[in-house]
Each structure stands twice: as C-alpha cells, then as structure tokens.
Amino acid sequence: MHIVIVNRWPRFSDGIRWDNELTRYEEFIDHEANRVSYIVDGPGADGVLADPARIACLVRVEDVNDVAALGAAVREITERVGPVDELIALSEFTLEIAAKVRAELGIPGPTLDEVAVYRDKVRMKQVLDEAGIPVPRFANCESADQVRDFAESCGYPLILKPLGGAASIGVRRVDNATELAAALTTLELADYEIEEFIAGQIYHVDGFADDDARVAFQAVSRYINDCLSFAHGTPLGSVLMGPSPQRTLIEEFSRQIISALGLRRLPFHLEVFLTPSGDPVFLEIGGRVGGAEVPHLLYRVFGVNLYEMFLRVLSGGPVPPVPEVVDSSGGWLIMPKSAELTERVVRAASMRDQVPIVWRELLPAPGEVLAPGGAYDALHRGRFIVLHEDEHVVEAGIRKIIENFDFEAEPL
Exposure check for the chain: N or C terminus, fewer CB within 10 A? Predict the structure, then answer.
C-alpha cells in the first residue's frame, strides 16, 4: 500500500513542549510493510521521520491547505513512487482540502459529501434537524436582506460563524441590529452561517466512532468559560466529568448524533449545550481529534490515544480495542496571550507549589516574545494539565490557577 501523509504540525525535541507528541506516524503506520510518503509545509517538516531511508518520498510545499499545491504534490509523488492508495490528513483545516484532491485524482477515502457532515456547519445541522435532534435555528448567509430577515424572526443575540471554521476563528456574536449592520459590511457572507444563540453550559465530548457509526469510546468534559471568549482573552479550560445524570444524558445524546450523521471509523470532537432547563442542544462537531490539551489528557487518564486509533484505521487496520475505562478526572487550562499586543515576558511563575495536582505546565521564559495569533497549541502565557480522580478537586485547582497566576510582560 502507498500511503501519503499530509502533515502541518511540528514536534518538539526540547523536552518542554508536548504538542503533537501523540501523532507518531512512524509508530502507528508500518513504514516497512507500506510505502509511506509525506507532504509537509515549513512547520510540518519538523513533525515527520528524520530517517529518509524509511520514507518513500517527501515533498515540501508552502501551504498544505492550498488545494492546488497539495494536488501538485500528490501528482509529483505519484510520478516518483506510484499510485496513491491512501491520502491521510489529520488537521481539521486540511480535511476538506484532502477530500477535494482525492476527488480530483481518484484516490479512495472520505469524499466531500462525507466530510461535509463534520466540516460544514450548516450541513451538519440540516442532517441532525431532519433526524429530530435539537439544534439551534440556523441558515446559510445568502444576502444581507436574508440575514436581517433571519435576525428579525429569531431575535438577538445571534452567532455568525464561518461554515468551515474551527477554534472559534472568525466567529462573531451580535447583540443587536446595529452590531449586525456593522458585521454585514465586513464579512464574506457566502462563507458564513447565522444561528440562534443558545444560553447554557457548554460541554465537549471526545471519542471514536466504529465501523457501524457507534461510539467505541467517549469522554465528556465541561468547559470552564468558552472558546469564543478565549479568542478575546479569557482563560479557557475544561474538566472531565465523573458519573452523573448529566454525563449519562450527554453520552446518550452523543450516540444519537454520531448515528444520525453516520460517522464511521474516525475520531470526533462534539460540543453540546445543556440549557437551563437541562435539555441538550447540538452546537457543532468535528471529525478529528480534539484540540488544546484534550488528547494528552485522555491518553494520560484513560490510556486512549485517539491519534493512534485514527492512524491505524486510516492505514487499513480495524478499529483498535479500547482499554477498560476507569472513572477518573482531570482537566486543562490555557491562560491566553494578548490577542492584540506583542509582549515580552518578564515573569511567568510556576503554579505547581500552589496547585500540586498540576501534571504538566508550559510557561514562556523571561525575555520570550509572545505575538498575537496562533491556536490553542501556541505558546501562551501559561498552559496546564491537572490530574485528580475527583472532578471537583480538578475544577478547584483550575480556578485557583486562574485567580493566582503570576504573569508580567511588557508591550513591544
């Protein structure tokens, strides 16, 4: 089998950064039994095998999310190595791009229609709505007049969201007609949807769907703050839930969603609301491993590496068995850097003495420069993973970090 892996993620060898340490392509895909080629961009070149003897072909491009560049790279590999049997991409931003290249070049794998149910924010809600699963009221943004009509019928607040976005990038909340009018002058409407604002606590569910669109593994977590607020400088974290009626409710809701969407042989990162009345409402889903510290926490607590499961399946294997899961907890927290200012770090103090349940912490060194931008796995003011069997102890530890984190920086 000739497998082509598209990689845009670096791995670090400094013993400090743990980002992407679980995406061990060389361990989870047999490079001797298969011919394995890579397409990488600048950062991605640091995330693959250093031994060229085990790689069939490696092609560098400026941006793996440029569909023309990715297609050209696959053609080059085909000419040099032979036909491609699998084109593997793990990043959410590359899933649709890879599907377009597969369609263009006749490569087996997830199609654009299959990817749409976990990439297109409107398509996923259409499918679930037709299945009778609660979703926010929603619509494609077709014109300014149509968006205003939706707002008038639905009421404020409203959410404007990129159809294929992730990590709340580009998401905007509008609270009144004046804010909506301002937004309509700046957005490319064809790329957006508009949806009802749902009040309630947000949870995320991370798991894996088997061959029959059933949930083989899932873990439910409760957000501390929310992803949209994080984009504006608010700390973001979550706590793994222990046994409770709320967890059982969300687990069953998750199973209904995975079945209705027909997700098979892939990981998922699902977000749902629990409204003040206790009813679950779908928020959105991604057919990929959750971001931030999610995969590292799940691997540490449950021994489940969702990247390993995904890569073994993508390279032709069965869905791997899941270890027997023992109820425990843990959580993570990101203290974000400034979204507007470049700053030089003066001090970022460890929280291990104040919060002994900290398992991992990533702090910038004095003198380090933090520039705006980057996702959850960027170097922020502080990133923490905490461990304890009791979710209430975990949450208390996270909130203590938020309240007492000692950080100082000077703007540049």
Answer: C
Planar angle of CA 113, 115, 116, nearest 5 degrees: 65
Which residues are CB-neighbours of 248 under 8 A, at least 6 positions away? none
**Measured between alpha carbons, how far is 59 from 70 in angstroms, rounded to an integer?**
10
Does residue 43 have a cis bond before it (omega within 30 degrees)?
no
Residues in the chain: 412
* Residue 36, helix vs strand vs coil: strand
Burial (0-12, 13-18, 19+ Cβ within 10 Å), 269: buried
33 φ, ψ (degrees, to nearest 5) = -75, -20
DSSP alpha helix (H) spans, 262-390 = 294-302, 306-314
Q: Which two tokens stand for residue 102?
A: 């597969």
Both tokens of residue 164?
Answer: 């294929």
The residue type at 104: E
Supply the pLDDT for residue 294.
98
Asked whether the beta carbons of 394 and 329 are under 8 A apart, the reply is: yes
Cα atoms in the 13 Å half-sphere on the side-chain side of 233: 5
pLDDT at 273: 97
The CB density around residue 28, as the number of other CB atoms within 10 Å, is 20
Residue-by-residue DSSP string for 45-92 = GGGS-S-GGG-SEEEE-S-TT-HHHHHHHHHHHHHHH---SEEEE-SH
Q: In 3-state terms, the chain is what percent helix, strand and coil (to 5)?
A: 35, 25, 40
pLDDT of the residue at 166: 66
The answer to whether residues 240 and 234 touch, using CB atoms and an 8 Å cutoff, is: no
Show Cβ contacts of residue 368 under 8 Å, excluding neighbours closer than 6 positions: 344, 345, 379
Q: Supply 99's token pair.
A: 């599907």
CA angle 190, 194, 197 (to 5 degrees): 165
Which of 279, 298, 292 shows the shortest CA–CA distance to 241? Answer: 298
Whether 9 and 44 have beta carbons less than 8 Å apart is answered as yes
Which residue intervals of 306-390 are DSSP H helices? 306-314
Q: Which residues of the chain have pLDDT under 50?
A: none
Structural tokens at position 306 = 């969702």
